[in-house]
């Protein structure tokens, strides 16, 4: 790669920051984010997402804009004007009707378009349906910059594969799919990632192939989890331990080891809607994809109903009962609360008249209140509850003595299936 290479990473969240830090071990990098408080925190060497340790972050941080190897974080668009690679890592959510919301992509493309120069390459990492990069983002870049696609500037697509909270499968250790708007640009994009990704790369023949590959990765997981969630419902009716069944079936060499659970977050619970939306635009109604989504989206209410049944069997008066929900993030050992399905469980329990106390040492209380209008508790010691529910398997919870939080007649419910047999019920 050329010595004058300078990379801008647009969006410094769970995807952008780890990538920016990795690139900054070898190149001059500017991390850009419109969230001023996020940038200020990163400049002080603190990553609130817990993806990058303070030590690793501070090793690459630069105090001012520079062409030197390292990472400079900024909210000033002008600071990325001298870059020649622009990597867009903004989120691609769905709206309240589960329709893809491309607003962050449009806005980031407009921002990049204002600083785009001849010869620059824009690489998108956000999960999209096939065609978004060239049909939605490129026209924005052309309109704002006044430059011509594949003549003056070029694009690539390299889908993110970040697994939040996973300290084993970090960005450099996950094989990266790459692509470019021309064969030559594909090679350039591939070389850029190959220079920092130790796990290697896979150069896809086209951008649309790379986009499609990404969107089916999580759709496949969603469908498989929906299958075992349905099994859990069936085996519950038959009074059979689902965990024991899966362990027995798992002794076959090609049985896929999926577990039942709540499917939230910004990937598995969202990406299938992107593929479904595009299919419907083309006149095809996807049956399996949407059936999996419906089943997984129903699990919060199902879990709540199972908890209530257990309480009734123990003679606990449901209306007015006290319940402790351990965890509200969308997955274990991660502070991310985006699209967490624990809130569905809480909403259903509240409908039954149960008073729910939420405790999660990793979640940001202000963010939980802003996103879901829910209050979290900072202290639970000394309190006892009619029901204790392990909603998220944070390490802190697994190390706790949960019996001290229970009344003599209370129930312990394990959503994640990690507490062993000393529970009254589990999914």
Task: Tell me about this structure.
Strand 12, helix 14 (395-398) and strand 13 form a beta-alpha-beta unit. The mean pLDDT is 94. This protein has helices at 16-23, 36-43, 54-60, 103-113, 132-145, 183-194, 207-237, 242-249, 271-281, 287-297, 299-313, 342-351, 365-372, 395-398, and strands spanning 6-10, 28-32, 70-74, 85-88, 121-124, 154-157, 176-178, 201-203, 322-326, 355-359, 376-377, 385-390, 406-414, 425-426. It is of the alpha/beta class. Helix 11 packs across helix 12. 37% of the residues lie in helices and 15% in strands. The protein contains 14 helices and 14 strands. The chain is globular, with a radius of gyration of 23 Å. The strands form three sheets. Strands 3-2-1-4-5-6 form a six-stranded parallel β-sheet, sandwiched between helices. The chain has a six-stranded parallel β-sheet with strand order 11-10-9-12-13-14.
Strand order of the main beta sheet, please?
3-2-1-4-5-6
Task: Return Rg in Å.
Answer: 23 Å
> Low-confidence stretches at least 5 residues in length (pLDDT < 50)?
none
Number of helices: 14
Return the structural class: alpha/beta
Strand content: 5-15%
Q: Identify the overall geometry.
A: globular
Largest sheet: 6 strands, parallel
Average of pLDDT: 94
Distance between the termini: 51 Å
The level of helicity is 25-40%
Number of strands: 14
Order of helices and strands: EHEHHEEHEHEEHEHHHHHEHEHEEHEE
